[in-house]
Specification:
Largest sheet: 8 strands, antiparallel
CATH architecture of the largest domain: Alpha-Beta Complex
Shape: globular
Helix content: 10-25%
CATH superfamily of the largest domain: Naphthalene 1,2-dioxygenase Alpha Subunit, Chain A, domain 1
Number of domains: 2
Radius of gyration: 22 Å
CATH topology of the largest domain: Naphthalene 1,2-dioxygenase Alpha Subunit, Chain A, domain 1
Number of helices: 6
Number of strands: 20
Amino acid sequence: MNNHFLDNETWRYFWHPVCTIDELNQSDCGRGKLLRAELLGQELVIAKLDNGVVALANRCPHRSAKLHLGWNCGNAIQCAYHGWKYGHDGTCTEIPALPNGPIPPNAKTKAFDCEVRYDLVWVRLDNTINTEIPAHLAFDDPSFTCTMGTPYTWKTHSARRVENYTDLAHFPFVHPETLGNPDFVTFLIPDIDLQRHGRMRFKYEPPEGGRNGMDAAGNLAPLIHTDYTIQLPFGVTLDQPLANGTRTIMWMWATPIDNRHCRTFWFCCSNTKAPFDPAVPIATQMAILEEDIGPVESQEPEQIPHPRDEIAIAADKVSLTYRRLLFELCKAKAAGQEAVTAFLASERTNI
């Protein structure tokens, strides 16, 4: 463990979305589809090559130029500085100034695991532990219509973003005219379970009139309950039946750009049968996010601090449990790969 409460190297074992497939497709400015991204301080170039989407370290090892400034040649990325080409695995395949070779054996840039799922490009920096891309409850369900929101970047650690998204006590104060009701400031403390693959689960049942949810049309309707799934380390799914008979599923993942900034990828999904303009619920959700950003970005430090540095009460059970599980995950990382695998396979009730 390092001097921080949480060891940010732990998150390298997990898959994180780094861009949308639309962002990658729109990156072609005449040089092919090449996009710069950043994950946990590692600068990446994302490219759509002939054999699929790849993620390489965004540095040519020849003279350290950025590869995203080069060309997508279909089967390779060509550096803009001296024309060196790198294949899908990061190995140099051509040096124009050395046509007869040999290519130096260390002429390669780091390649990372990369997959496209849910119209997002996912990257894993360290594949020495067998982790999985997290589930999306509604994306492949034909009874739901899923609309992706525009990714947004906040000056906060990914864990702070998840805490805000799952904080039960902030609604009457941060969202008094939208999701919350200022007349309801207390709530029942939920039971929390830990399920396999690092899924923290709990159910929130608000008092009648105490909470609203958003339907497909962007309208706010009384919330019956919310089934929360926090997918460690930085994902959240909200499953929300509403009093108007519809069901909304919100899905998000807060990707750690570095230790002080995160980029959130998110979807609004609904099972309504009535026609609706998907831009409306996205706009409603964006307005709600604007209510959150000020308090969240004001938190110092941006990272989760040591427990002695903040005051906690019983109403903070969700965030306290989340912090404890992240800390346990970091302790497992310090103990070795087998300990991380065992942690992710564990199950506990009423933790």
